[in-house]
Amino acid sequence: MSDNARAHHRPEADPFTERTPRVVAARHLTRRQGRDKAGRFLVEGAQAVREALAWKNGEVHELFVTATAAQRNAELLQTASNQGIRISEVTDKAADSLSETVTPQGIVAVCDAVPQPLDRALQGTPRLVAVLYGVSDPGNAGTVTRVADAAGADAVIFAGDTVDPHNGKCVRASTGSLFHLPIVRSRDADEVFAACRQAGLRLVAADGYAKQDLVEASSQGELSRPTAWVFGSEAHGLPDDVVAKLDTSLKVPLYGAAESLNLATAAAVCLYASARDQRN
């Protein structure tokens, strides 16, 4: 660790253990109730922490790092130090207690919660938005967030009874995209749909049972319009009553023998189809 980084490193000689009060407090953030109460969450791994340090809409409050991880990530710690962020060395066991992975990386950041108000996320003239409705698998939700970011979407909205975007697996699956575009969490799906319409977005259900498919919609110019794609859970898709509230529904055509696509793959196809047509 450089001299500058040590300037923001706590002065105590011994690293924090899993029983140190600040580590115990951070461990509460591995649970949704603790995250909601504190308005903060944990980001694990060098790449995700690097993205958090570059984030413009929130603050990184502290870095917990093992001696080995500090040696491996000297440049990252220097960046954190230059930002005045507290750097706390912890034991391997303490780092493990903050990790939700099988092979902890030894570096964890405490960050502000990412969600923005719905109206702020949809301000201006959004062209492409991903809405996750009732998605319970955090890996899928995080991957769709990453896909939406890659496709140039303007926002990702977690609507209704959907997994917490701060869930550790969701954060890891997003690979930093959580910090790149507005994230919204709203339990009121009707409010989300109304806000999308008010922003000029056409609400399109991704529905494997739809009569029309993406290719047909594209040929008719439908996908070049500002669109909010609404994706349901992998197990059950979108309920009929939700589909009925939307403007239309489209399916991904299946040309082979596969019965269906998983949620993240279907979302990638849908979002990129819109992104392509909008750019053309």
Observed structural traits:
single chain; alpha/beta; 14 helices; transferase; SpoU_subst-bd; Ribosomal_eL30-like_sf; RNA methyltransferase
Give the mean pLDDT: 93
Sheet of most strands? 6 strands, parallel
Q: What is the percent of helical residues?
A: 40-55%
Low-confidence stretches are 1-7
Protein name: RNA methyltransferase
Keywords: Methyltransferase, Transferase
InterPro entries: Alpha/beta_knot_MTases, Ribosomal_eL30-like_sf, rRNA_Methyltransferase, SpoU_MeTrfase, SpoU_subst-bd, tRNA_m1G_MTases_N
Pfam family, one: SpoU_sub_bind
Describe the protein's architecture and organization.
Keywords: Methyltransferase, Transferase. This is RNA methyltransferase. It comes from Lentzea sokolovensis. The model is unreliable at 1-7 (pLDDT under 50). Strand 8 (202-206), helix 12 and strand 9 form a beta-alpha-beta unit. The chain has helices at residues 3-7, 21-27, 32-38, 46-53, 67-72, 74-82, 92-98, 118-121, 138-150, 168-174, 189-198, 214-219, 240-245, 263-279; strands at residues 40-44, 60-65, 86-89, 107-112, 128-133, 155-159, 183-186, 202-206, 227-231, 248-250. Helix 9 packs parallel to helix 10 (168-174) and helix 9 runs parallel beside helix 14 (263-279). It starts with a helix and ends with a helix. By secondary structure, the protein is α/β, with parallel strands linked by helices. The strands form 2 sheets. Strands 7-6-5-9-8-10 form a 6-stranded parallel beta sheet, with helices on both faces. The protein has a 4-stranded mixed beta sheet with strand order 1-4-2-3.
